[in-house]
Amino acid sequence: MSQFLHAVTLVFVFLASTNIQITAATPPSYSRNHKMYVKTACNSTTYPDKCYKSLSSYSSTIKSDPIKLCTTALKLSVNSAKEAASVISKLLKKSQKSAAGRKNKVLPEKLILRDCLEEMKDTIIELKQAITEMKTLRDGDSVSEHIANVRTWVSAALTDEGTCTDGFEEIKVNKETKKMVTKVVEELATTTSNTLALITNLSY
């Protein structure tokens, strides 16, 4: 796993161990100030400033609802994953054109980008599954089980993101390609890590 993803994992484990909880019964002050609710929730994440920056504009919709908070964070993670997939897809097409005409020659960069794109597609599916699972939390039955399922889906997405960048650490590729992929995937990993922290702290 890349150093960045390794650092994310270590910080997340620490934050999760603090067991800061977001409950449905939120203090009255949060209801009066929805942005403060978002900011307080984001303080439990790996990257609180980025968390607040991405979610604060949705505070009027989130209000003081932890489910809406986590669902919104998940949707933003899906958007980030789609953006990463788009960038990688364009780089893959470019790499394929470069390999054209080279008989029996498959560039390592092409293989890595192809695998990375598949990881991004899996990430999108897993995050969407998490959103679907979130919709069941208000049903009242097996809530803790559903929350655990959401965490599992998001954890799997974070793992796939790390797997994508691992390939660029193991094989020498074009520096600019590596830089572009690393940038979008690390941005995605930051968003996903924050989302996972919010979900981990979700409690009923």
Protein architecture, described:
With 204 residues, this protein is an all-alpha fold. It is 76% helix and 2% strand. It is built from nine helices and two strands, in the order H-E-H-H-H-H-H-H-H-H-E. It has helices at 3-17, 28-32, 34-42, 48-55, 59-62, 66-99, 108-134, 143-170, 175-200; strands spanning 22-23, 202-203. It has a two-stranded parallel sheet with strand order 1-2. Helix 6 runs antiparallel to helix 7, helix 7 packs antiparallel against helix 8 and helix 8 runs antiparallel to helix 9 (175-200). It is elongated and about 55 Å long. The relative contact order is 0.18. Residues 13-28 have low confidence and may be disordered.
Radius of gyration: 19 Å
Counted by DSSP, the helix tally is 9
The portion of residues assigned to helices is over 70%
Order of helices and strands: HEHHHHHHHHE
Structure classification: mainly alpha
Topology, number of strands: 2
What's the main sheet like? Answer: 2 strands, parallel
What oligomeric state is this?
single chain
Element layout with pairings:
Elements: H1 3-17, E1 22-23, H2 28-32, H3 34-42, H4 48-55, H5 59-62, H6 66-99, H7 108-134, H8 143-170, H9 175-200, E2 202-203
